Structures are given as C-alpha cells and as structure tokens.
Amino acid sequence: MISPLSVYIHIPFCLSKCPYCDFFSVQRDASGVNPSEYFRWLELEVELLCRRIKGLEGRTIASLYFGGGTPSLFAPAMYGGLIARLTAAFVFAPNLEGTLEINPGTLGGNESNGKHSCPSSSTDPPVVALPDSNRLESFLKMGINRLSVGVQSFSDRTLERLGRAHRTAETLVLLEWIRARAAKAAGNLTWCMDLIFGAPGQSLADWQGDLQRALAWQPHHLSVYGLTVHKGTPFAHLQREGRLDLPDEETQRAMFLEARHTLTAAGYEHYEISNYARPGFRSRHNECYWTGGEYLGLGPSAHSFVAGVRWANPPNLLRYGETLEAGRLPRRFDRAPKGRARLGEQVMLGLRRLEGIDLEAFRARIGCDLTQAYGREIARLAEAGFLELAHGRLRLTEEGLLVADAVMTEFF
Q: How confident is the model at residue 27 (pLDDT cuts 50, 70, 90)?
C-alpha cells in the first residue's frame, strides 16, 4: 500500500524581513515578481512534477501546509487556481490537515503599506489592522482547518526588538476572532501559536508573562522556539559587533525549562523538542517529517522526499520561475545518506520526538540494531544523564533536551 503524501507550499513574500530569519523570503513590494505570476509558477510546478515522476499523480495528500514567508498576505482567491490544480492531480484525504501560517496585521487591515501603524505619541491609541472576517472565512472554505499564528511575543517591546511588523493589539484582535470561530466549528478548526524565547533584552519574567498570556487563550497547539542567531542574518552582524543583547546561557536554559514545566502542567503534551499540543492536536504534517514519511515541497527553497529520492528547489525566486517557464523542474538532487550518516539522520529525527525511538520498530524499518551500532555512544550519553534507554525505547532526558544538538552529533 502506498503511503499518503504531505505537501508543503512555500509562499516566500513578506511585508519585511525579520532580522533573525534565515528562511528564504523576499519583501513583497521589492521582489520584482508579481505574486499572481508566482502562484502560476506553483501550478506549473505541480503539472511538471506529475509529468516527470511516475506514480506521483493520483497519490493521496494527508496534509497540506502553506508556510512562508507570510501566506496570509494574499487573498484566498489568489490560491484558487493552485488548489484546483492540486485537486485535479491528487486525492485529498477525507481527514486532510490543511494548515495556513498567519501573521497578525496581514489579513485585510492596513497591511498594504508594508509598515506597522504606530501611534504618533505615547498617549495616542495604536492603529490596529483589523482582520477581515470574510477573508478568514474564505480560507476556511478553501479547506484550511488549522491556523498557525506567528504571535512570537505579547510584549510590544520584545516584538520591536525582534523586528516584527505587528504589535500586540493586532494579535489580540486576531486571536479573539480565531478563538470564537474555533468554538463555533465544534472541533473542526485547530489553531496554533508560535512563541520565541531568548529575544534581545528579554528577561525570564518577560518570558513567564508571555507563557501566561498564551495559556489564557487556550490554543490547541504551541510551538516554542529558542532564538537562534543564524549566519548571514542582521542579528549575526549585530552579534559580531557586540550590539545584540541576548539573555545569557543560564537564562535561556531557565526559559526552556519554564516553558516545559508550565505548559505540561497546563495539560499540553511536550511531544517534540519545540512543540506542545493538547491531546489529539499534534501537527500531523510535521510528524510526517520526524517519522520518515514522504513529502512534496513546492516553491523556491522547498525540499522533497518521494520514493526514496530527495531534492530541493533553489532559494532564488527568479531562477525558480525562469526554470519552470523553460519547461524544466528547478530541482537539485541530493544523494541519500548512506551508512553511518543514514543511521545518524534517522536517530536525529527520532530523538526530536519526546517519546523517542522504538528500538524494535527501528530495527524492522531500517535493518539495524541501534544498541549494537551505537553501544558505546548510548552508554556514554546515558551515563552523562542525556539519554535513557527503557521499555524498548531510546529517548532524551530533560537534561538531554537542553543540549539536543550536541547529543545528536554523537550519532554521525
């Protein structure tokens, strides 16, 4: 039986580029590409993929994820041709998980000028970009049943230091609509919230406040990311110059543990290093990646893994479009890792999940006994308190979660 696919569609346009972001994105009004033309390119990519990859057309799609960039910048009508193309080429599962990433202030208010509307003085009320409820409803009719909101923080000071375009007042208006609409949907609409800790100038007390305000909204799912300074970003430049005031290592450690203890005490499952969900509301799309499932990525910088073959599209908007217009797929093939590198990759994916690796299932799927292949590494990491081996599973301890990247390098 052929397993279903997960499909990721990259919408690379943003109002502005956040100084910490290393995902491929472009400023909408300075990209040199008309967004309607970009959506036509996506349709063309689907058509070419189905022509070139035997057995792809007709596959079942289990999850569809619109990420970015800022997918919520564009009206649902812009997505109509692409959805029609996907519907013609594939079979949408009856329980399809359809996710749309949303940023506050990008759903029909004053986002068209590409700037946040700040008050002219400290006594003036903020000008809030109100979400268009008709636009939101149209996304739901399009098949979206999971909304992922890029809140990041409930502190305007933190948002400003992160270079975010929205402010808390816009977040609150959007969350109020989503929560009410989710209640009306009676379980048929899931909504999620992204938060960032370790931001410039952020204290542990600031972070505790963000967690409490997030819990007050009772989202189905929370993604909690520690800020990472990536090479080539403006934050990396500021850090080299000594002008990036990040919390120290101990504070960031305390922030991670504060999130873990606070959210699990509130009934959320800590099911992946950065992800928490109420029972039954895990991200099925992301679990496809972590469990070695097949996925198709559309758009510049998107990655795919289908029928044992890996490829990635170039992180270049114009090159992506020009290649498709020439009748070619903009694919760069990656060699599948072999030997120890292949095992290490599978271990890394498995250890990201809090339940860890089922050793018997791993041996049946990969053909390797981990306790034999990595006996010394497992023993050493377990003795250090970073791994535990119990009831046929290998998983990170709480101490191991704090240094997960370092632990995983031991398996390569």
A: very high
